[in-house]
Amino acid sequence: MNTRKSENIYQEAVKYIPGGVNSPVRAFKSVGLNPIFVDKAKGSKIYDVDGNEYIDYICSWGPLMLGHSNEDVLSGVEEIIRKGTSYGVPTEIEVKMAKLIVDAYPAVEMVRMVNSGTEATMSALRVARAYTKRNKILKFEGCYHGHSDSLLVKSGSGTITYGVPTSPGVPKDVVKDTLVCRYNDLESVQKIFKEHGNDIAAVIVEPVAGNMGVVAGKKEFLEGLRTITKEYGSVLIFDEVITGFRLAFGGAQEVYGIEPDMTCFGKIIGAGLPVGAYGGKREIMEMVSPVGPVYQAGTLSGNPLAMYMGYKNISILKENKNIYKELEQKAIKLENGFKENLEKLNVKGTVNRAGSLVCLFFAEGPIENYEDVMKCDVEKFNIYFKELLKRGILLAPTQFEAMFLSNAHTDEDIEYTIKASYEAMEIAFDK
Ligand SMILES: *Cc1c(COP(=O)(O)O)cnc(C)c1O
């Protein structure tokens, strides 16, 4: 595999951009490689500047449910750009977008558009704190909600803890109000609510965790969160930045039949443009300025181009709900293929799948929380990753991310992936 052009660009990139990348996971550092630089992509395929072709399972980390440069999503885009790129004055497409989201999510009565998932969760927490007049928030180990200060925490030792910053630059004082519990462990939540319940403004959770591989929330766990937050008057926030419009059209909340008080969106609702959104019950959302006192703003929020693409993306999903079944069938095929491979090669591994999100962990199951995920053999994964890359398959360059399937992935893509995965495991595990 020739990657000379990518190498050259990378050498130039590191001079001007920290690590040569604008988001750390793109660096391929965890697998001991330098990044490939992309030229273009179409459908399920991505092409680097050296002309190598890969079946893409990153898909921009989730937004591209319909694959790269989908013609239906793109049609009409040029006209929109030519009209103007941003106005700082409202446009009708923002209203259409809001209505589309509100119609799809019964728990979302009003919605505010922002520019990223990070902004969505950060803003939702501010609103929840103002609404409850409380300061503490509760999150779960292994769930990622973007990189705002109060959410950049890990748990200390023990199952129930006060947050410890995961990054220098985050003051201890900022995270002192962030409590951390173990995912899928309702008991730890009940304990912490006994102690702090009346000070907890919000519980924020990925209903299906997609940032520690794929770990689905157990139904009893999520239902338990709903019950306990109601009991104590805390706001339950579902971070559906990955799962929204992916797990089902109505997101994880539709699949589990649970209505959170607030919901965060991102990724798919922007179709690959920078978009996020947060919404919820009218009473809560009317806290937001200019109706209410909570300040939250954005020069480019509700950008017409982003709204147009996002609106198209979601509308296509709305009109073609069979896509969800098709996508799940593809994911099941991948899941079964991986399981068969593990068995044939006698390799200790676990395949977790939720809808079209799949993860092959190199550790024995069940994998239900962050601790379980951390048992994975990362060195074997790194070899596995490189062998797949050589065979024209692009995974997220870490064991701890999901494989994102798009509707553009063909049966042929999946079959080839299963075969290549077998060969890569043979090499990684010396079989
Ligand atoms: C990606 C992600 C975010 C952050 O979104 P950005 O657009 O990267 O800021 C938040 N929550 C979850 C669940 C995510 O997967």
TrEMBL record:
Q: Where mainly located?
A: cytoplasm
Q: Tell me where in or outside the cell this protein is found.
A: Cytoplasm
Q: Which cofactor does it need?
A: pyridoxal 5'-phosphate
Pfam families associated with the record:
Aminotran_3 (PF00202)
Modified positions (N6-(pyridoxal phosphate)lysine) in chain numbering:
267
Can you supply a Gene Ontology BP term from the record?
protoporphyrinogen IX biosynthetic process
- From the record, what ranges are coiled-coil? 317-344
InterPro entries, sorted? 4pyrrol_synth_GluAld_NH2Trfase, Aminotrans_3, Aminotrans_3_PPA_site, PyrdxlP-dep_Trfase, PyrdxlP-dep_Trfase_major, PyrdxlP-dep_Trfase_small
EC class (word) = isomerase
Q: Which pathway is this protein assigned to?
A: Porphyrin-containing compound metabolism; protoporphyrin-IX biosynthesis; 5-aminolevulinate from L-glutamyl-tRNA(Glu): step 2/2
Identify its protein family: Belongs to the class-III pyridoxal-phosphate-dependent aminotransferase family. HemL subfamily.
Q: What is this protein called?
A: Glutamate-1-semialdehyde 2,1-aminomutase
Annotated source species: Tepidibacter thalassicus DSM 15285
